[in-house]
Amino acid sequence: MDITDILDPLNEAQREAVTVGAEPTLVLAGAGSGKTRVLVHRVAWLVRVEGVAPQHILAVTFTNKAAAEMRQRIEALLGYPTRNLWIGTFHGLAHRLLRIHAREAGLPETFQIMDSEDQLRMIRRMIRSLDLDEHEWAPRDVQWFVNAQKDEGLRPKDLKDEGNAGRRRMIDLYARYQRLCDEAGLVDFGELLLRTLELLTERADLLEHYRARFKHLLVDEFQDTNAIQYRWLRLVAGKSGIPFIVGDDDQSIYRWRGARVENLQHFQRDFPGTRIVRLEQNYRSTATILNAANAVIANNASRLGKNLWTDGGAGEPIRVYAAFNERDEAEFVVNRIQDAIAAGERRRDIAVLYRSNAQSRVFEEALLAAGIPYRVYGGMRFFERAEIKDALAYLRLIANRDDDPSFERVVNMPPRGIGARTIDIVRDEARRSGTSLWRAAAAVITQEALPKRSSNALWEFLKLVDRLDQDTRNLPLHEQVAHVIERSGLIAHYGKEPHGGGEARVENLEELVNAARDVIADEESDMPPLLSFLAYAVLESGAAQAGPYEDSVQLMTMHSAKGLEFEWLFMCGMEDGLFPHQRSLNDPEGLEEERRLCYVGITRAKRRLYLTYAEQRRLHGLESYATPSRFIREIPPELLEEVRPTMAVARPIYRPAFAGRDALPGGIRLGQRVRHGKFGEGVILNAEGSGAHARVQVNFERSGTKWLVLAYANLELM
Ligand code: ATP
Ligand code: MG
Fold it and tell me: Rounded to the nearest 5°, which phi and psi values hold at 279?
């Protein structure tokens, strides 16, 4: 058997990992050291050398994009498609299990997944129906609470109120919310995992079946698994499963979503005899880039500690650009991208990274103006656009009339004269009789509880959905979608929108038909095509944007760049308050997480790296003055090169830290809490100057970071 293609492209440590025997293995290694490569080659090794059947392998990764890439690479090594090898995200895999075992899990066969926006809307509706004060019981807080519990694997019955009335109410809201979901056959993201976990815990026969099936469990990006994902993994692995885990504690960036980097240590405890393999050679970046990344992460206290070196050359220095404002920053980036393309760089090897989604717009506009094709991952994704969600809501109602969020979304979309009053009456009826909005609507029509006109309009809507269902039942999926967007009136409605906006929306709706054409039926679970399409629409992140195969510049947040690599990389908005994010500025653990995110960002770059920041930026509608990110200052100056000296108004990058901590007038210190008449409460982060010129930087909870002249600010100490 010729296995040179599996082992030749590996170094010695990587080879050790790929060929370990049937023992739990943990590959712990820094960025770009070949962890993902090892995982892919391990799968090929198992199948081709150890003779493991593909259906005995389960591979888990972090995003759908990474999963697709992994499948491609595995198939290339195996030389054939791998339909019965399960590869996916934890959520995707849990969903697949629930589809196969919906009934056993106590779900209707037609259950639908809710994204977080649907979830929030449902919670808001519930809070209103209980006549609770939305300020006191903010829907977002309730959502956060519910999701945090589910991520820990906790149901309302598992929670204690600890004699605290507020907590008691939260637990009660969680329970009510869950009841609403169950009645409507809706499943949120956290529920996908929790339900499967419960299903496998309660059904010994199923657990035994899957334990026998998934003998090898491989997980990439393990540092970002949360509590329930890890429990899931342990449960499925049991005593006989052989886990193969790869991860990097320095790249744990989802603590805010419940990720537990401690799982790396727990793993060694929970799977005694774990073999640990360390990879220390980085193959991705130049020595300059790698050294910069190592210098930044060295500022974190809590680390497992690893070596990382490269035998590549020093390469070019890292360029730093201080822009006047965000437009100048975007223009600079786009000009450099043009240089790169002119020099023969492929567009897909160039990426622009930013901390938060909203930053993409300015870059998008500049790229558009320059005629450079680009693709945004995350952010306003195709499936999140209003017209697409409307079309999906019709399709969801066709699949399940009791889907209340969908009912509410399109009952008057396109407008058909159903007013807020009518909907209130339907909602009251639903609450009173404990049914779905759909059933309640039918009831209020029969009871003649509505004025004639409203009643007719509502009746038309119910008939429309029933008709759409009947007329499309035997059509192929994409024809069904085409029929629905047309006959629901959505195309005609959106087509009327002025300023060419309508045209784009109609194009999007038509693109939905294309997306439906591309759905591959899941043979194993026997899932009807419409259901698998709707699930795909919710789970898919960032697909279907202009020509996935077109060579385009990549725009994404630092979070979504995890695991990827690019020849040219721009890290933009490198400003304190933006990155590190202002939420984390007063929280040491949060700051460490931001620093890990910075480490992830820098290590995406192979050859050339730019760090840019804007001196002045419009944030949340307000102009604010920014300080360069502390992360830039953490990079040794000899690795950096300033692209253009900053202008007179600019401050130098290496501003000495404020020396006299206690030297500010009025007893003000760094870290001091203050109140400002207009901006509210905040914390002093930084200070410069003295006497009448003393200025302080305050991180306001509501209005973000600002520099204020102390003499005029009238700050009240707290
Ligand atoms: P990250 O932590 O960012 O996820 P990783 O550890 O998963 O990184 P990979 O993406 O697997 O690293 O590999 C990084 C780069 O190095 C890839 O381009 C990969 O093809 C290349 N590479 C890995 N191992 C080798 C090797 N032994 N020889 C040559 N190139 C390698
Ligand atoms: Mg990787």
Answer: -110, 130
DSSP line for 40-90: HHHHHHHHHTS---GGGEEEE-SSHHHHHHHHHHHHHHHSS--TTSEEE-H
Q: Give the end of a domain, one of 540, 560, 589.
A: 540
Same domain, yes or no: 10 and 91: yes
CATH code of the domain in which 669 resides: 2.40.10
Q: What is the DSSP letter of 157?
A: G
138 lies in some domain: yes
Q: Which of 643, 673, 708 is the last residue of a domain?
A: 643
CB 565 less than 6 A from any atom of ligand 1:
yes
Residues 406 and 488 placed together within one structural domain of the fold: yes
Identity of residue 304: L
pLDDT of residue 82: 84
- Indicate if ligand 1 lies below 6 Å from the C-beta of 567: no
Q: CATH number of the domain that 33 lies in?
A: 3.40.50.300
Residue 621: pLDDT band with limits 50, 70, 90: low
Residue 298 covered by a domain: no
Contacts of 70 (CB under 8 A, 6+ apart): 36, 39, 40, 59, 61, 87, 220
Mutate to test the pocket of ligand 1, among 10, 16, 37 (most ligand atoms within 8 A of CB): 37
Question: Poorest-confidence range of 12-16, 340-344, 551-555?
Answer: 551-555
Q: Average per-residue pLDDT in the chain?
A: 87
Considering the domain architecture, whether residues 487 and 466 belong to the same structural domain is answered as yes
Backbone angles phi, psi at 422, to 5 degrees: -60, -45
96 and 117 inside one domain: no
Q: Compute and round to an integer the Cα radius of gyration of the chain.
A: 27
CA distances from 509 to 385, 492, 516, 550, 621 (A): 10, 11, 11, 20, 31
Round to whole Å and give the CA distance between 337 and 23. 47
Judge if the beta carbon of residue 312 lies within 6 A of ligand 1.
Answer: no
| 402 and 482 co-located in one domain | yes
E strand map for 324-444? 350-354, 374-376
Which sequence positions are flagged as catalytic?
A: 35-36, 220-221, 251, 604
Residue 146's domain spans which residues? 112-184
CA distance 474 to 410: 24
Kindly state whether residues 568 and 630 are assigned to the same domain. yes
Using pLDDT thresholds of 50, 70 and 90, give the confidence band for residue 674.
Answer: confident
Which-ligand-closest: CA of 31? Answer: 1
Instruction: Classify the phi-psi angles of 281: left when phi > 0, otherwise alpha if psi is within -120 to 50, otherwise beta.
Output: beta
Closest CA to 717 of 677, 681, 673, 680: 673
How many domains, the chain?
A: 5
Ligand 2 centroid – CA 269 distance (Å): 24
Among candidate residues 45, 14, 8, 11, the one with its CA nearest the CA of residue 29: 14
**Taken in order 537, 543, 546, 550, is the CA torsion positive or negative?**
negative
Same domain, 376 and 389: no
**At 142, which CATH number?**
1.10.10.160
Residue 603 lies in a domain: yes
Task: Give the three-class secondary structure for 243.
Answer: strand
- Are 533 and 391 in a shared domain? yes
